[in-house]
């Protein structure tokens, strides 16, 4: 078993450098948070949004879940709506101005969606029903794959971002703010192999970000 000490050592370095450091950032943050952006990212250990965006604590309100999915608005029923609760807080309390759905290459959650759950349904029952939020992305992907040699997982990783943005707009209080221009929605896709970031255009294409 790996030792947990490596994380505690990291905490010691953080505490010395950032908490006891000179910039008094945490003294300010102890008073409250005012992030302008909410980012919905994947739980994958390789795609930490704060690291990728070189952001400081307090800059980004982050929701991380399997495959960076936004579920549709489902107020009824007794499910545990963790992602929807965080979304509600970010929009209605923190009043974020931007919401980014950020997907990534090599996403195991999207692979599970595309491949389906053949091997061990009892081991992945929660995961499979969660990624099925994006089943329409899978349908569009399989349609596109008939005409393309492109990696079906990469296509579905991008299509699921479009599905999540569509789902965000089913939350009435969020759609209202998008319509009046107080919130802007963004779809981003990070490629781990070459470090490129792709931005979803209005025409629903992913175009490489210009890093200048
Ligand atoms: Zn992922």
Précis, in short:
By secondary structure, the protein is of the alpha/beta class. It has two domains: 32 residues, no CATH class; 175 residues, Carbonic anhydrase (Beta-carbonic Anhydrase, Chain A), CATH 3.40.1050. A six-stranded mixed sheet has the order 2-1-3-4-5-6, covered by helices on one side.
Folded structure, characterized:
By secondary structure, this protein is α/β, with parallel strands linked by helices. It has two domains: 32 residues, no CATH class; 175 residues, Carbonic anhydrase (Beta-carbonic Anhydrase, Chain A). Strands 2-1-3-4-5-6 form a six-stranded mixed β-sheet, covered by helices on one side. Helix 7 runs antiparallel to helix 8. The longest helix has 17 residues. The protein starts with a helix and ends with a strand. The mean pLDDT is 93. The structure holds zinc ion (ZN).
Strand order of the largest sheet: 2-1-3-4-5-6
**How does the helix and strand content classify structurally?**
alpha/beta
Oligomeric state: single chain
CATH structural class of the largest domain: Alpha Beta
The largest β sheet comes out as: 6 strands, mixed
End-to-end distance, in Å?
44 Å
Give, in order, the helices and strands.
HHEHEHEHHHHHEEE
Q: Output the CATH homologous superfamily of the largest domain.
A: Carbonic anhydrase
Q: Which of globular, elongated, flat, extended, rod-shaped describes the shape?
A: globular
């Amino acid at each position: 078993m790996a030792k947990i000490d490596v994380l505690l050592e990291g905490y010691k370095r953080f505490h010395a450098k950032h908490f006891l450091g000179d910039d008094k950032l945490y003294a300010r943050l102890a008073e409250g948070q005012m992030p302008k952006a909410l980012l919905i990212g994947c739980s994958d250990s390789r795609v930490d949004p704060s690291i990728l965006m070189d952001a400081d604590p307090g800059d980004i309100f982050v929701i991380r879940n399997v495959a960076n999915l936004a579920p549709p608005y489902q107020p009824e029923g007794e499910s545990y709506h963790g992602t929807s609760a965080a979304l509600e807080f970010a929009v209605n309390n923190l009043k974020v101005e931007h919401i980014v759905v950020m997907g990534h290459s090599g996403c195991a959650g999207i692979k599970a969606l595309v491949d389906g759950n053949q091997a061990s349904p009892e081991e992945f029952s929660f995961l499979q029903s969660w990624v099925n939020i994006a089943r329409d992305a899978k349908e569009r992907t399989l349609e596109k794959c008939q005409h393309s040699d492109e990696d079906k997982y990469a296509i579905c990783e991008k299509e699921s971002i479009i599905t999540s943005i569509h789902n965000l707009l089913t939350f009435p209080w969020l759609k209202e703010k998008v319509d009046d221009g107080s919130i802007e929605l963004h779809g981003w896709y990070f490629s781990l192999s070459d470090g490129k970031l792709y931005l979803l255009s209005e025409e629903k294409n992913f175009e490489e970000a210009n890093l200048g």
